[in-house]
Amino acid sequence: MSPFELGTASVIAIVFLIYLGVYIPVALGMVSFVSIWFMRDNFDLAVNLLKIALSDSVMEYTFATVPLFTFMGLIVSKAGMGRDIYEVMNAIFSKITGGIGMATVGANAIFAAVTGSSIASASVFSTVAVPQMLKYDYNPRFAVGVVAGSSVLGMIIPPSAMLIIYSLVAEQSVGDMFLAGVVPGVLLAIAYLVTIWAAGRFAPDFVGGRHIDDTETLTSSEIFTRTAPLLSLVLLVLGGIYTGWLTPVEAGAAGALFGLLIALIQRRMTLTSFKDALLETGHITASILFLITAASIYSRMLGLAGLPNELAAWIAANQFSFAVVMVIYVGMMLFLGTLLDTASIILIVVPLFLPLIEALGLSPVWFGIVTVVGAEIGLLTPPLGISCFVIKATLNDDRITLKDVFLGALPFAFVMLLMLIVLISFPEISLVLLNH
């Protein structure tokens, strides 16, 4: 087999192995290692490239953002700050039709700006928001759909684990990726709010719910007390990066320390929960390290096989326009999204398409936002739909089936697709904060 044929077969084999349940880094690393060995008939070369991939991942300074932001997010989650911000949002929106759903979106947007995890958002708000909506006779599908849809904000609004993974794979600035994610994330949250409002007005049966007259009324001081800690943490992290006072690594360190101090002052952090946060941080960091290492050797395998160059030559030969290229790219992501998780999609498709995007003179930072949003749609679509599975498992309510979660999330997946089209059509939306 030629290197190109072997590389193509390797990509197919990687997707197949991941679909069968093989651990993602193992599938990426193992197939890439064997492919390099066969391509050049040189075992030593494959070993040396693996060593380089390992050293590049471990020695990369920006990788320090992963444990720092992960620890910060876990501290915030375990300290119950998500519930605080939800109660404030609920007090603001509760009198509106679909208001609890709006409160869930608003709280998730702010919570996402600290945790950076869709899974954390899905698990927290499944226990906080869904029972509240069911209490007031909201449609169960709408209740779980809102939580599923708004949970993806955690991967778009910075700090985001997926933005960090993309920045490491594409060799882009983590700070630039964070700033680029702010406006698209906020716009997606607004789009969700408008969708819920429209559904409450024009499709009330889908939303359900009844008038709420016993919602807790919060005074201005109570609202400040419950929101100030989380908002000040967001301001410290994103404000520090935007003004240039802090690098992303420094912002992660400062945010982790500040989040821990808040939890201690509020007496919401026990020794056990602190220990759990440290252990979970280690587990998550190690898994992402393996992902980045596997992606590094995978990228080298693609380069040796010449797949990115062949893809660019094929597109040039067929004279595909920018629109057609993006349709192919988004279509591939949506297809893979039904089978794989977001990290797998980023690791597989970015090394293939990024050289082409750079050759076209397009911004790799904008491309990263498009990639993350497109891949995140997969969190809401069957058969994988990780957020949907997390919500179902967290609720443990026989009245709500997995089918209900997927159908409830479908309108929000459609809104994400529309937002993706807007971001592709107007790249300046993603780059506006970088240009000022």
Automatic annotation (TrEMBL):
It is a multi-pass membrane protein. Its main location: membrane. InterPro entries: DctM, TRAP_DctM. The chain crosses the membrane at residues 12-38, 58-76, 142-166, 178-202, 248-265, 277-299, 311-336, 343-360, 366-393, 405-426. Keywords: Cell inner membrane, Cell membrane, Membrane, Transmembrane, Transmembrane helix, Transport. It comes from the Bacteria. GO terms for molecular function: transmembrane transporter activity. Residues 12-429 form the TRAP C4-dicarboxylate transport system permease DctM subunit domain. One of its GO terms (cellular component) is plasma membrane. It is found in: Cell inner membrane. The complex comprises the extracytoplasmic solute receptor protein and the two transmembrane proteins. Belongs to the TRAP transporter large permease family. Part of the tripartite ATP-independent periplasmic (TRAP) transport system. This is TRAP transporter large permease protein.
